[in-house]
Every structure is written in C-alpha cells, then in structure tokens.
Specification:
Strand content: 15-25%
Distance between the termini: 21 Å
Number of domains: 3
Largest sheet: 4 strands, mixed
CATH topology of the largest domain: Butyryl-CoA Dehydrogenase, subunit A, domain 3
Helix content: 40-55%
CATH class of the largest domain: Mainly Alpha
Strand order of the largest sheet: 1-4-5-8
Length: 384
C-alpha cells in the first residue's frame, strides 16, 4: 500500500496558489457581480446565452492557472492534481463563469496521450487557450466505444453531445472510432465542417452544446486503440475536479444560509435558533467535509501513484468523491433554498446561481447512483 503524504500533498506552492485564487475571486467575482453578469435577463424565452469575461480569463492565464497541471515538458508548471482541485473548489465557491473546469479536464486527457501532438496542444493550454472534450454520445455515455463520431482518412464525421463550455472553447479533443479502434483527435473549434449548436441548460454560469463534424480534418493526439486507455486513465482526475467544484459551491451555499439564519428573525428568535434549521445545516457541513476529503484524497492518490501500482484503489476513491459530492450538492442546495424562505426560490436571490450549477455538476460524468453502482460491483467482485 502506497502511503499518501500528509495533508494530501498540499504543500507551500499549492497553498499559495489557492490563496491567490481566493483573493482573485474576492476581488473580481462577488456573487452580486456574477448575478448581474449572467442573470440579467429572467425571461424564460430569451436566447441561449454564453456569458463570460474574457478579460478575467486572460488574468487567470497570466496567474498560471491553465498551466498549473500541464507538464513542464509541454511548457507548463507541472503541479500535482491537488492544485487543480484547489482551483476548482475556489471556482465553484465563486460560481465562476469560465471554461476553466473544461480546460482542466482536457488537460488530464492530453497528459495521458503521451504523444508529441498532445504535448503541442498542452502547450497551447498553458498559453491560455480554452479547450473542451467532445467525447459523449447522444445517450449521454462517455465510454469510448459509444462515441457517435468516426474518422476516415484523417477526417471526422458525426456528432459529439453534451460538450461543456463549447462556445467558449477554442479547441476540442474528440474521441472517434475507426476500424483500428478508438482514437483521440484535436480540432480547432472554428475549423471548416465544425457546427456548434447550443443546448439550453439550467446552469447560467456555463454553456453546453452538441457539435457536428462533417469532413473535419483532425490532428491525431492518441492513436486508434490508445484513445480509450487515455480516457480511462484521465477519468479519476476529471471526477475529482468536478467534485471539488461542487464542494466549493456547497461551501458558499452553507455560509450564505448560515448568515441568513443568524440575521433573519422569526418569533422573536433568529432562524438559526431553531433545531429544525440548525441541525440540517450541521448535516450539510458534515456532508461538505466528507466530499472535500474524498476529492482531495482521490487527487492525492493519483499524484502519489504515477506508475498506477494501486490503480483500482485510485478509481474507487474517485467514484466515492463524485458520488458523495453529488449527494451533497443536492442536499446543500435544497436546504439553502428552503431556509431562505419565501425569497429562496426567487430570481433576485443569488442562491439559484449556485443551486443550478450544483444540479448541472451532479450529472456530469455520472450522478451518485451511477458511481455507487460501479463501486458496488468493484467491492462485491473483490469480496467474491
């Protein structure tokens, strides 16, 4: 058994990065500002929007966030995964409208490709180019063999679905099948033959689309037969980062609800005085702490085992992190709305931004039931 370092390997550099992120979001991304930015139009018949501040993206690029987990050989900083988890947590706490999580997830996949072409794309990410993954089929499966995209003579045809931050991304990593197996391919988002169709989603801080490829010339980053392995090895990191985003949003919901419960008076008492309010909030706190520990533990397991000697344990931790974070997201969101009373479900209350982000996050790469079913199969198989 590989012994994990203390504090999940969260050292001085990672602490400085997290603290700089806290300050950045405090200075630039208050909930009131984000609400004005993405929720200015409450009309349910409004056009599908993609709202984000490209100036802030440039600033976080200059701070080194996109380069954080890019290997040094590809022009990045080469920090451990726990650094990306810390940044994702702070981004979730701010409900930051950006392609940061999608770009991280693309980074994790490209790191597993081990090719010169993949390193070239990683260098672009380190330089601040936002990216996204186009790997999911119409039924919502991201299993490589289920892709709806094929490649023939270096050209992609088909459709990728549920692509996150598609209209913010400048590049896409696409999974596609051929007679030789599943490969991964890079295309520019504005390449000829790429058609992006926006999807309507509840999360106001992100966008989603399905993308059609018609005779699109692609660059191979993982050869046919190697793409499915690269995706499988990247999934635990993807799940840990999404879980961290949910942890951050859950922390905002808890803090905001506690503050409201301490100031709102009912029957001559603050709401927080009543057990029916304070006990569920304590349970929310416990759920957040559990999800946070599992997210960092999964990330630390990946960092501590580069040769994958204990890969099964790492996969289990990632499934546990995503399952617990998804459950926490639902519980924290529902308690926040309920305990804000009559204003909790209104458009003017900032809670709905985080509620909607949580509901979207919980389904990304599988909800809690999906991950628990996989865990059950893994554990029962071990017992047998």
């Amino acid at each position: 058994m590989i012994e994990q370092p203390k504090n999940f390997g969260f050292g001085e550099d990672e602490t400085m990065l997290r603290d700089s992120a806290k300050k950045f979001f405090s200075d630039h991304c208050g909930a009131d500002k984000i609400h004005r930015q993405v929720a200015g139009n409450p009309d349910i018949h409004r056009n599908i929007e993609c709202i984000w501040d490209k100036g802030l993206w440039q600033q976080i690029t200059e701070l080194g966030w996109t380069a954080a987990c890019v290997p040094e050989a590809a022009g990045g900083i080469g920090m451990p995964l726990v650094a990306a988890v810390a940044l994702a947590e702070e981004a979730g706490r701010a409900a930051f409208p950006s392609p940061l999580i999608s770009t991280f997830n693309t980074t994790f996949v490209l790191r597993e490709c081990n090719s010169a072409a993949a390193n070239d794309v990683l260098a672009q990410i380190a330089g601040g180019k936002p990216m996204s993954l186009a790997i999911t089929n119409q039924q919502g499966s991201w299993e490589p063999t289920d892709t709806d995209v094929s490649i023939d003579n270096g050209q992609l045809n088909g459709t990728a679905w549920f692509v996150q931050d598609a209209r913010k991304a400048e590049g896409l990593v696409v999974s596609a099948r051929s007679a030789a197996g599943i490969g991964l391919y890079y295309v520019a988002a504005d390449a000829d033959g790429v058609a992006i169709t926006a999807d309507g989603i509840i999360d106001l801080t992100r966008d989603q689309a399905h993308i059609s490829f018609t005779g699109v010339t692609a660059i191979e980053v993982a050869a046919p037969g190697a793409g499915d392995t690269a995706l499988a090895h990247a999934l635990p990191a993807i799940q840990a980062v999404i879980a961290a985003d949910m942890v951050g949003a859950g922390e905002w919901l808890l803090q905001t609800t506690v503050e409201y419960a301490n100031t709102r008076v009912q029957f001559d008492r603050p709401l927080g005085f009543f057990q029916a309010v304070k006990h569920p909030l304590v349970n929310v706190m416990l759920d957040i702490d559990r999800a946070k520990s599992l997210a960092y533990s999964a990330a630390c397991a990946i960092d501590s085992d580069p040769e994958r000697q204990e890969w099964a344990n790492t996969v289990k931790l990632a499934h546990m992190a995503k399952a617990n974070a998804s459950d926490m997201a639902v519980f924290a969101s529902s308690r926040a709305v309920q305990f804000h009373g009559g204003i909790g479900f209104t458009w003017e209350c900032y809670v709905h931004l985080f509620f909607k982000r949580q509901m979207h996050n919980q389904m990304l790469f599988g909800d809690a039931r999906y991950h628990r079913a996989i865990l059950a199969d893994m554990l029962i198989g071990q017992a047998a």
